[in-house]
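Q: Sequence in, structure out?
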Amino acid sequence: MIIRKLSSSVLKNKSVLLIGPRQVGKSTLIKSFKPKLTLNLAEEDVFIDATSDPSFLKKQIETHAPPSVFVDEVQRFPRMLNSIQAIIDQNPKIRFFITGSSARKLRRGKANLLPGRVYSYQLGPFVASELDYKMDQEKILKFGGLPEAYLSDSESASKKLLRSYSGTYLKEEIQAEALVRNIDQFSRFLQGVVNVSGHFVDFTKLSQKIKVPRLAVPRFFEILEDSLIGERIYPCKELIEIADLVKHPKFYLFDTGVYNALQNNFELSNDRIGVLAEHLVLNQIRHSSWAFDQPIEISTFRTRGGLEVDFVLKIEQKHFGIEIKSSENISSHDVEPCLKLKKYLPKAQVYVFHLGKNKIKINGVWCLPWQEGLHELGL
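A: Exactly. Output:
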């Protein structure tokens, strides 16, 4: 049993809404708190009973009188959150644990997200701190951090799980979320996204390449983001004009294993390792921010003149420049962009995170193994 960092935050608050991608361990985490009544809306009989009877939840509470209630997969029936609010207002002593995998479905279902009554958290795949900064680097690069895929002793089982995840979930369920007349457009978009993941995205060029209308592209990206499958990273807003930054966003899928499954390629070849390293570090930073319940702004920095640092982080008003390298064979040339970033952010702390094993310092810039780098950032 891997203890999730978020456990302590969830445990100390009365009622909780926990959002996260499928199969990251939301249900496992909540079950560890031993709720007295569980209603899993993924079970068809429970779903039918809940949707056909407006007083279903109230009757369950009256029958079982539980001190704690676990409502799983609430995005299947977002309006149940209205019933939960009414029950909390009437009986504040009842504690609810609520999980869901799609903020989009909740919003589309006109869900009441219970502001002030329920604390909201997000859970992602495993992060380095949850494994004492001793993650198996090859495994996390190949199979990602979804608990079942990472913990499996069988490479073939991990591949099968991830292929099923990318096929059944992404290509069917997320596609159904598109709500477009031409489903083929969304299918082409999904494949196009895999090819641009980890790169700056020009929406016009992408739409031309995949033969999807230009206006549909940002809407399709929003669907992936609302479903927590990926995110766009935008240029550093404080510097966008001062440094003349490229205004296109970068897009990253939420997990290296899912990215590999969508590419149908789990090899750590030289032509892929750079993009995989960026995905790994970006996702570890983002999911660590969820795990520690620590807001972090992540942005890109690339000038039109070609100066680039992979990520600029803002944590509690402090800036950090992070350059990612797949090898620890780092030269003074490799750290130069970090030093030039300080021209625009003089107080920024800059680092190079790499996939090697040694900690080295070049021209005043620490070059750290990525897990040591995360620890240095308090993540």
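The mean pLDDT is 91.
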